[in-house]
Amino acid sequence: GQQLNQSPQSMFIQEGEDVSMNCTSSSIFNTWLWYKQDPGEGPVLLIALYKAGELTSNGRLTAQFGITRKDSFLNISASIPSDVGIYFCAGLGHYGGATNKLIFGTGTLLAVQP
Amino acid sequence: DGGITQSPKYLFRKEGQNVTLSCEQNLNHDAMYWYRQDPGQGLRLIYYSQIVNDFQKGDIAEGYSVSREKKESFPLTVTSAQKNPTAFYLCASSNPQRGETQYFGPGTRLLVL
């Protein structure tokens, strides 16, 4: 199955630092989603992007849908300890036919040192 | 509260045994999905259903089966044919008419004894 290229794989930062992560693909997507997953829990939707070039914020989080439709990034400003978790990007693509399916990135593990 | 529930939180399976994982949603979503997550990896699609009484295989359907008799429910059976079933299983649902954004349940961790 397809997966998006997500980087970095992991980040270890100090509280208060800003964080940036991104996803790239060889395929064009019409929708980009960013999720956060806490250990032992299901992913929670953070931001949804529906238009190329769109820049959307949710509190300290900002995400952008790349102009080429093949990439997206997520920024977290002034990180806090509860930002710890795994962040996944997901793109809406075609899977084995006409129906659109979400394709997930491999995840970025974020650790925040208080 | 609207949402997706999965049960049980933890499930133990003996060799050669079939087990069924429950997924229920009260979001009135048409589409439901099952994913498998292994340590250090992203989510892989097992099965999905766009509408009641219809479902399709995902990337890794071998050793799994599903049913969609009701809009609210999409149970997943891990059969004895699945040789490496230990994983974290996630159910999701979406309303395709509203942009395909998927919402996830809390997950079920399956362990083999």
Task: Report the principal-axis shape of chain B.
Answer: globular
The number of E-state strands of chain A comes to 11
Secondary-structure-derived class of chain B: mainly beta
Mean pLDDT of chain A: 90
Quaternary state reads heterodimer
Strand percentage of chain B lies at over 45%
Look at the structure and give the mean pLDDT of chain B.
91
Global structural class of chain A: mainly beta
Q: Identify the biggest protein-protein contact and residues per side.
A: A-B, 26 and 28 residues
Poorly predicted segments of chain A: none
Task: Give the CA-CA distance, first to last residue of chain A.
Answer: 38 Å
H/E element sequence of chain B: EEEEEEEEEEE
Order of helical and strand elements of chain A: EEEEEEEEEEE
> What's the tally of helices of chain A?
0
Helical fraction of chain A equals under 10%
Q: What kind of sheet is the major sheet of chain A?
A: 6 strands, mixed
Structure write-up:
- With 114 residues, chain A is an all-beta fold.
- Chain A has strands at residues 5-7, 10-14, 19-24, 32-37, 44-49, 55-58, 61-65, 71-76, 85-94, 100-104, 108-113.
- In chain A, the strands form two sheets. In chain A, strands 2, 4, 5, 9, 10 and 11 form a six-stranded mixed beta sheet that branches. Chain A has a five-stranded antiparallel beta sheet with strand order 1-3-8-7-6, with no helix packed on it.
- In chain A, β7 and β8 form a beta hairpin.
- The termini of chain A are far apart.
- Chain B is mainly beta.
- In chain B, the strands form two sheets. In chain B, strands 2, 4, 5, 6, 9, 10 and 11 form a seven-stranded mixed beta sheet that branches. In chain B, strands 1-3-8-7 form a four-stranded antiparallel beta sheet, with no helix packed on it.
- In chain B, a hairpin with an 8-residue loop joins β9 (87-94) and β10.
- The interface between A and B is medium-sized, with 26 and 28 residues.
